[in-house]
Design brief:
The chain is α+β, with helices and mostly antiparallel strands. Helix content is 18%, strand content 23%.
Length: 319
């Protein structure tokens, strides 16, 4: 019998901390009947579990919690920050090396935004680092089409409201003008949806390149595009600080989990769309009527010229 008491932690939270899925994905798995606790299938995430409970996902026991890890990823343009995309677009997780553990992104970057993206195997840490209360500065380099001056950018230090949405203090610096474009450095703390683009659009600038170069104490540096680098445990703990470590309940003493211990994951996203069958090309005559496809046209027999005598000779034009 499952104990629904208030002791322990919510099961979706425990699954997320084990690096299996985000809390939302874990709740979806539970609703799909893929999770059982102490031999009983559950369909509601409103359940607290303890270390004594036996959790099984897709028939495989949930592995022990892995050590908290963080990776730096130089995201290229053209990738969606999600595990599966209903439109079939390429995702960052499809582009990552297969040897990595199951990772969760700390926030998101738009499809056409590039640069530093933090990845972690700890759902609690990801959630903590995303919170505006953490007050970590996100720095960007921006190339935008249009004209702007420094006094106008300085006004952003007091925040700005665009289309009813208020954005907090912004540090913006005009680096240089290059033809019809301007290069800016942009620093924000909230990271609201498309914040940089929307704020600059309100100033008459159109962003045509956006690169995140840092997130809190973590820097993109010279990490090549598409490459991943893990932050060493000692350095990670020092950079996070005790306050974030305690708030996120990060665990740096747990062992690493081998690939054999990981739970095999099913595809939870929408199936990839099949490419439509190629349309047959339609041909139109000079009279505007459609011809039958060539594959369906009947071959006409050649005219037998032997019965009509020799071909008449035509006089050649003389110059």
């Amino acid at each position: 019998m499952i104990d629904k008491s208030t002791s322990g932690e919510r099961i979706a939270k425990v699954m997320a901390r084990a690096g299996l899925a985000s809390r939302r994905e874990a709740e979806t798995w539970i609703e799909q009947g893929r999770v059982s606790v102490n031999g009983q299938v559950i369909t509601s995430p409103a359940l607290n579990v303890t270390a004594a409970d036996r959790i099984v996902i897709d028939g495989v026991p949930m592995p022990r919690r892995e050590r908290t890890r963080l990776f730096l990823y130089n995201k290229p343009r053209g990738l969606v920050t999600t595990h599966s995309d209903p439109e079939g677009r390429p995702t960052i997780f499809g582009a990552l090396p297969k040897k990595l553990p199951r990772l969760i992104s700390v926030g998101r970057l738009d499809m056409n935004t590039e640069g530093l993206l933090l990845l972690t195997n700890d759902g609690g840490l990801a959630r903590t680092l995303e919170l505006p209360a953490t007050q970590w500065l996100r720095r960007y380099r921006v190339r935008a089409n249009g004209r702007i001056d420094q006094p106008t950018l300085d006004k952003l230090r007091g925040g700005i409201t665009v289309e009813g949405i208020h954005y907090g203090p912004i540090e913006a610096l005009l680096e240089r003008a290059q033809g019809a474009n301007a290069w800016l450095s942009f620093a924000i703390r909230e990271g609201k949806n498309r914040e940089v683009r929307k704020v600059l659009e309100s100033l008459g600038l159109r962003v045509n390149r956006l690169i995140r170069v840092s997130y809190g104490p973590f820097m993109l540096g010279d990490l090549p595009e598409g490459e991943v680098k893990e932050v060493e445990t000692a350095a990670l703990r020092a950079e996070l600080g005790e306050k974030i470590v305690q708030q996120s309940d990060a665990d740096f003493s747990a062992p690493l989990v081998s690939d054999e211990e990981r739970v095999p994951r099913k595809r939870t996203g929408a199936p990839r769309r099949e490419a439509p069958a190629p349309r047959q090309r339609e041909e139109v005559t000079a009279w505007g009527r459609e011809k039958e496809p060539r594959s369906q046209q009947k071959k006409r027999p050649r005219r037998d010229r032997s019965k009509s005598g020799p071909r008449p000779a035509y006089p050649r034009n003389s110059k």
